[in-house]
Amino acid sequence: MIFVFGSNLAGIHGAGAAKEARRHYGAICGNGRGAQGNSYAIPTKDEVMHTLSLKAVEAYIWAFLCHARAHPQLEFQVTRVGCGLAGFHDAEVAPLFASAPDNCLFDTAWLKYLPEKRSWGTF
Fold first, then answer.
1. Four-residue CA torsion sign, 102, 105, 108, 114
2. N or C, fewer C-beta in 10 Å, the chain?
3. Taking every pair of C-alpha atoms in the chain, what is the biggest distance, in angstroms?
4. Domain at 49, CATH number
5. What would the pLDDT profile of 1-29 be if each residue is shown by its tens digit?
6. Considering its fold, how many domains does the chain have in total?
7. Which one, of 20, 31, 27, 30, lies nearest residue 80 by Cα?
8. What residues form DSSP beta bridges with 50?
9. With bands split at pLDDT 50, 70 and 90, how would you rate the model's confidence at 95?
10. pTM of the model
């Protein structure tokens, strides 16, 4: 299971799901995006901890979805990316994952936005 979390471009995994990713899933300090260990970082903040635009986050989500499609043998445990410290609302971010492949499982809180998807629980 690959733990998918919201990050900052500086790769400071100091709180929330990012801290969990660093402690338990191999997220690498200094690396704020992409696959690392048993995790995948989706940037939601820039290098100085300012929240990225939703359009910028959407581009990083698209890159993740391409990665998930390219690795059908893996399962991805997607957290509520961007809905913690970045300050986005679930209703803004969850629908950006609507085209996710079947190997993506989502936080239970997102099932009302992604009713055809599977969940893994909550963080």
1. negative
2. N
3. 36
4. 3.40.220.10
5. 999 999 999 999 999 999 999 999 999 99
6. 1
7. 20
8. none
9. very high
10. 0.97
**Residues 38, 92: Cα–Cα separation, whole Å:** 26
CA distance 123 to 120: 10
**Angstrom distances, CA of residue 97 to CA of 30, 31, 62, 119:** 26, 23, 8, 13
The DSSP string of 82-122 is TSSTT---HHHHGGGGTT--TTEEEEGGGTTT-TTSEEEE-
- For residue 54, the number of C-alpha atoms closer than 13 Å in the C-beta half-sphere is 11
> From CA 110, how far away is CA 15, in angstroms rounded?
21
Q: What is the DSSP letter of 51?
A: B
Do residues 60 and 5 lie in contact, with contact meaning Cβ atoms separated by under 8 Å?
A: no
* Residues in contact with 74: Cβ distance below 8 Å, sequence separation at least 6, in sequence order: 2, 68, 103
Give φ, ψ of 100 to 5 degrees: -60, 145
Q: Are the C-beta atoms of 4 and 77 separated by less than 8 Å? A: yes
